[in-house]
Amino acid sequence: MLPQRFVTGPFTSPLRTCVPGPLASLSLVLQPWLLQPLTGRSAGEFSGRAVDVSQLGSGALDALCNASQEACEAGKLDPFWMTFAARAASFPQTPPTLALEALARSGVGAAAEVLGCSVRHYLRRFRGAMGLPPATWLRIRRWETAVGALAGHETTSLAELSLRHGFSDQAHLARDTRAIADASPARLRRLLWEKAGHWSLQPAHVRLIQDTDDAHP
After folding, report:
1. Contact criterion met (CB below 8 Å) for 149 and 28
2. CA-CA distance, 104 to 100, in Å (whole number)?
3. CB–CB of 165/146 below 8 Å?
4. Entry pTM
5. Three-class DSSP category at 106
6. Boundaries of each HTH araC/xylS-type domain copy (predicted)?
7. Residue-wise DSSP of 25-63
């Protein structure tokens, strides 16, 4: 049973949940490293979990939740975005330096070399910022890219799509899809095509807060 207000971190496997009645929700999707300034805890503490906000003791997070609930009940989200924008002003203005291009291209050793640090230091830095070890992050990133291609209405075979997106073969894609989404690639593709209008498959409505020059969203 999901609590009314909760925080989650990066997920590497499905989380089965239920709610007691009709679902109306507002989600804030943040980069993992922003969980620290917002909650006082690292992203890794939320990985694969849904943590009740009432257990965190975060005044800033409580204020955001209250503002979002009041805005939703009033049918006006502008006051909430103003509250969130004010809070976002205290967030780090730039992401932590993790040499992600070198990591994706050549691995942890290359990324550590770019940053001039040891592999051990890089692994600590990466996990602290992203909530996952680099290998797991790369695996999820590769899978998400493949899912984006699955959603496209093209007739590319699953075998070809697998190789195009860095999987060793179709069976490799199938294993990761079952582990991460509890479905086969074929079933996931069918759902994405046949139920494209379903609310759960719609793209998120994104508002960029940090990238604005002033305090307004």
Report:
1. no
2. 6
3. yes
4. 0.79
5. helix
6. 112-191
7. -------GGGHHHHHSS-GGGGTT-EEEGGGT--HHHHH
Do 110 and 97 meet the contact criterion of CB atoms below 8 Å apart? no
Tell me the pLDDT tens digit for each residue of 97-111. Answer: 999 999 999 999 999
Q: How confident is the model at residue 201 (pLDDT cuts 50, 70, 90)?
A: low
Q: Which amino acid is at 143?
A: W
> How far is Cα 154 from Cα 176, in angstroms, rounded to an integer?
21
Q: Which two tokens stand for residue 154?
A: 């093209």
Residues with Cβ < 8 Å from 67, sequence gap 6 or more? 79, 80, 83, 84
Alpha helices in 107-216 (DSSP H): 108-115, 119-130, 134-151, 158-164, 170-181, 185-194
Quote the CA–CA distance of 82 and 16 in Å, as a whole number.
Answer: 33
